[in-house]
Structures are given as C-alpha cells and as structure tokens.
Design a protein that fits this description.
Length: about 60
C-alpha cells in the first residue's frame, strides 16, 4: 500500500479518533467504531479513500 498520509494529518486523526472513541465508550454508543475507523489509516499511514480521490498529504523528500 502506498503511504499517502502525512505526519500532521496522522496526528490530527489520532487525536480526533481517540476523542471519538472516548466519547463512544462514555456514552455506550457506536461512535467508538467511527473513532477506530479514523485511527487505523493514521497508524498504517495509508488511506484508501485518499488513493481513490488522488489526495496525498505526505511530503515527499
């Protein structure tokens, strides 16, 4: 898989994802699953939706 998620994008996704997971756990709702879906692409640095849309936030050095 091509890495297409940059450092800043990854940080924002992890923080936002963990916030949503915490909210989902505290309210006993399905929001936690959405949070996990946001965190996974950040951890692997690749987002399939970005590939389809042709977006790349990773700086090429």
């Amino acid at each position: 898989m091509k890495k297409n998620v940059g450092k800043t994008d990854r940080l924002i996704r992890v923080v936002l994802g963990f916030g949503i997971v915490a909210y989902g756990i505290s309210t006993h709702s399905w929001w936690g699953i959405l949070g996990i879906a946001i965190i996974i692409p950040a951890l692997i640095a690749s987002d399939p939706l970005y590939t389809v849309l042709g977006i790349d936030t990773k700086k090429n050095s």
